[in-house]
Design a protein that fits this description.
This protein has helices at about 10-15, 65-80, 85-110, 110-125, 130-150, 160-170, 175-195; strands at about 20-25, 30-35, 40-50, 55-60. The protein is an alpha+beta fold. Strands 1-2-3-4 form a four-stranded antiparallel beta sheet. A hairpin with a 2-residue loop joins strand 3 (about 40-50) and strand 4. Helix 4 packs antiparallel against helix 5 (about 130-150), helix 5 (about 130-150) crosses helix 6 and helix 6 runs antiparallel to helix 7. The chain is elongated, with a radius of gyration of 28 Å. About 20% of the residues are buried.
């Protein structure tokens, strides 16, 4: 049975409904339209059979991947399957390699690199005024960066941060010391969110409560004579 190739008009007219749709272009290439409940996204997939198993691999969203590009990708995948290569396993291996590369890059990031990214993103997300952004940046540049800015983020110790904060307090800027500790805490929260730091290694949680940086003078104990 001969399968008619898809036309651009068919793609344009394919709209999401109550159920997911799959339109075949032949040779294993299918155009999928998710249901309205699934978000209604459109894209491409390649179906194939290898070693007695039916498999399917996604090859791009539409219209980012147009009809011509999808056919070229499918042609390449058909040749791989004919050679005994599993496109699903190959895609997974590529994803794992990319993840490993990303994690390796994150492991090399310094405190300053992470903090600069946090500063730019927070200023945009929370619509900071120029004055507030400048104050936050000043706390980092004047007090945090000189002490820990060049250190790899994942290698910074609680002691190093405590000493940096205490130095600000010891030099007489007692109010600024608390703000420095606060901005470092926010950078650490951002690092956890971005995957730069495992959550269990975020020692800045509760930094104020545990008096990180010794910003409060311990009360003397009175012992009975």
């Amino acid at each position: 049975m001969r399968i008619e190739l898809l036309t651009q008009k068919q793609l344009d007219q394919a709209r999401p409904g109550k159920k997911e749709k799959a339109l075949s272009d032949g040779g294993g290439l299918i155009f999928t339209v998710r249901s309205k409940d699934q978000g209604g996204g459109r894209g491409w997939a390649f179906r194939f059979r290898l070693e007695g198993r039916n498999r399917k691999v996604g090859i791009g969203t539409y219209p980012g991947t147009d009809l011509g590009a999808a056919r070229e990708i499918a042609h390449t995948l058909r040749r791989q399957v004919a050679a005994g290569v599993d496109p699903v396993a190959q895609k997974q291996a590529a994803r794992e390699a990319q993840d490993a590369t990303t994690q390796a890059r994150k492991a090399e990031r310094t405190f300053r690199e992470v903090a600069d990214a946090w500063l730019a993103e927070a200023a945009s997300d929370y619509s900071w005024s120029e004055g507030h952004k400048a104050r936050q940046e000043g706390l980092l540049r004047n007090h945090a960066y000189p002490a820990i800015g060049r250190l790899r983020f994942r290698e910074i110790t609680e002691s190093a941060v405590g000493k940096a904060v205490h130095k600000v307090w010891k030099n007489g800027a007692k109010n600024a010391a608390g703000r420095v500790r606060g901005v470092i805490r926010d950078v650490y929260a951002y690092a956890v969110l971005q995957g730069d730091l495992p959550s269990e290694k975020n020692f800045m949680l509760g930094a104020r409560e545990k008096n990180l940086g010794m910003l409060k003078t311990p009360r003397p104990h009175n012992f009975a004579a």
